[in-house]
What we know:
The chain is an alpha+beta fold.
Amino acid sequence: xxxxxxxxxxxxxxxxxxxxNLSIAKGxxxxxxxxxxxxxxxxxxxxxxxxTNHIGTILLNSIDISNFSPQKRNVSILFQDLALFPxxxxxxxxxxxxxIKKISKIILNDEVEKYLEITEISNLKYRRIQDLSGGEKQxxxxxxxxxxxxxxxxxxxxxxxxxxxxxxxxxQLLKSIHRLGKTIVHVTHDLKETKDLADKISVINKGQIVExxxxxxxFNHPKSVFTADFNNxxxxxxxxxxxxxxxxxxxxRIDLGNVFMPDQGGCSVFFAPEDVLINDSQDxxxxxxxLAEVVSVSKNGNVxxxxxxxxxxxxxxxxxxxxxxxxxxxxxxxxxxxxxxxIKLITI
Length: 348
C-alpha cells in the first residue's frame, strides 16, 4: 500500500473526523465521496500535512509521516481555488516547485516542457494567468502538481468550478494522468465524476467512512441507508417490517423467506437492478413474481435499464443481447421475479 491511515481522528471547531482507517494501493485512483461538510477536505488536508494534532498514524510508502511538514511528505495537492501565482506566467507557475528545490535549469526546463505537453497547454507557456480560461487554469495547476514528482496526488473538488464541457475534457486528462501510474486521491460529491474515474470509492458522512469498495460495490450493493440514499440507488425502499417475513412495497408483497430480520424497528430493503428478472414464462407459482408495466427503456453501452411500475417504480437491468431477445415495449406488461437470496436488508 502506498497510503495507510490508521485510526485517524481529528477535531476542528465543532467538527470531528472519527476513527478513519483507509488503505490505498500504488497506482490506484481513489475517490472520497460524500456531501458537503462530510469531512472529505479535512481528511485530504490531514494527509497533506496542513492540519496537525490528529490522533492516529499516516503511513506513506510504509513511512510514518504523521509529524512531517507538508514540504517533506512527498505529496502534492490541488486546492479548489488552484492557488496559482498571478504575478507569474504559466511556465513559471509550473516551474515553481522545482525552483524551490534548486533543480538545474536544464532538468527544470525538460520537466516543465514534459508536463506542459501532458496537460496540453504547451501553447500557453508564456501566457499570463489572468488571461487564461477556467479550464486552462485547471490544467496549469494540475501540471504544477505533477512536476513535483510526488508519490501521491491529492485533488480537492478539482472539477467543481468548470462548466460541463470543460469538465468532460478535464476528466479525460485525469484519466490519462492515472494511466501514467499516478496514485490519486480525489475528493468530490459528484456521482458522475466518481463513476467515470474511480478504481475504489470511500463514502464519507459526518466525519466517518461509511463504507469502501468498487463502483459496483457502492452503487449496486450499498451497505448503509446513507449510501443508498446519497447515490440515489435504484430499488431501495424504507419499510416497517414489525418482524414480519412479508414486506409490502407498493403493490409488491415480498416474501423474504430466510432473510434475517431484526427484532424491531424499521429498515430499508434493497435489491440490485440486475436481480430484478424479467421472465418470458408466466411464473405464477413464484411467490415473488409480479406483473409490472414498462415505463421507460434506456440504453448505456451494452446495458439496458428498464423502469417498471407496480405501485412503486422499480428498475431492472440486463445486457443488450438479452433485451433484444425479449418482447419488452413501453406501456406493455411484463412478469418480473425477485430472488429472496439477493434481497438485502440495510439497518444502518
